[in-house]
Amino acid sequence: MIQPISRPPQVDLLRFNTCGSVDDGKSTLIGRLLYDSKSLMDDQVEALERSADLTGGGRVNLANLTDGLRAEREQGITIDVAYRYFATPRRRFIVADTPGHVQYTRNMVTGASTANLSIVLVDARAGVIEQSRRHAAIAGLLRIPHLVVAVNKMDLVDWSEARFTEIRAQFEEFLPRLGIRDVKFLPLSALNGDNVVVPSPHAPWYAGPTLLAHLETVHIGSDHNLGQFRLPVQWVNRPNRPDDGTLHDFRGVSGQIAGGIIRRGDKVLVLPAGVTTRVKRIHTLDGDLAEAFAPQSVTLVLEHDVDVSRGSMVVVPDALPGGATDLRAQLCWMHPRPLARGRKFLLKHTTHTTPALVTELTHRLDLEAFEASAAPAEFALNDLGEVRLRTAKPLFFDGYAANRLTGSFILIDADTHATVAAGMLLPPGDTVRAEFADYTI
Fold first, then answer.
1. What's the CATH code of the domain at 259?
2. Which of 46, 49, 154, 264 has its CA 20 to 30 A from that of 311?
């Protein structure tokens, strides 16, 4: 039975990351969130108590909940990205604990790439430093919609309102340049639990919510692009094929909706075939729907059997994406071997993979000043900057600022299959054309 949906329900999953300089308390903050929200199993608590002596003093170290590598625990730093999952009655969460070191910028970009919200920790004693600005700049570059500036270790400055106000003013000096509209400042002590889950009695001058209360209530329902329908095709279902487990009576295209809303009966355009048809059914695991929206996973049954395969994209004719083989993008280089002009890679965009050539290194981005420097000869590990690329087959895409899913890609070394870069496409100059030139790389 078709279940009509009048509007998308509230999104109940929040992805967020923590970042900041070394020893600002990122891992401790996540540990406190998990511990105070009663999201730990008994065996996790027991393991935490057993590992107390690793950091000396015999005191339970909440950072050990995320710092899983022995090197991280011995050095007291975060090296790799650690993901943790927890839930409250109001919302489910996926949190990425990202490193603070400059040399692990690529790890921070990886952990924050899918985040709805980013928490930048600032040590109340040190104030806003270079790494604070750098991580806030990366959050802005990745178009993370919501930012929390958590002023940690307030207990070490006697919960001084004047110090909190001073740090807020330092941050607000450069925030307008980052383009982040939703910013929340919050004083806390992750070690003692003040204002993390439970309100602190030491800051009567602060009338805002605790960190967990803010995470539970921040509005993320409009974070997805619901104005331009995009369905990158991941799989084509063929009817009645018991050998691959397909037991149904329809042929459909399956994938996760990357943007917009689709309704039964809507006219759609299949790219690159350039064929227009209509949606006959919208099938899901829970049955047929009258309409679907990002980020749901669906199977669209089309009225006609069109030329479609993995890597194709289904769109609506009145909201076309860009279509090009010459691309401009912001790139984060993630490999020890420097990137030079003329190198060839495999470019993976949504479900589509094609050979690509780096034709130009336009400029390197100075994240501290958030300004572009002169065109470099090469990009070193962790560098971010603008490049130009040429692909063997056209990409159908939106600018990253408009749609983070259809505006992002990765570069893969064809020999080693290592992911060497993450990219954010700049807005296209033209929308889809009827035909594309056949480029050979």
1. 2.40.30.10
2. 264
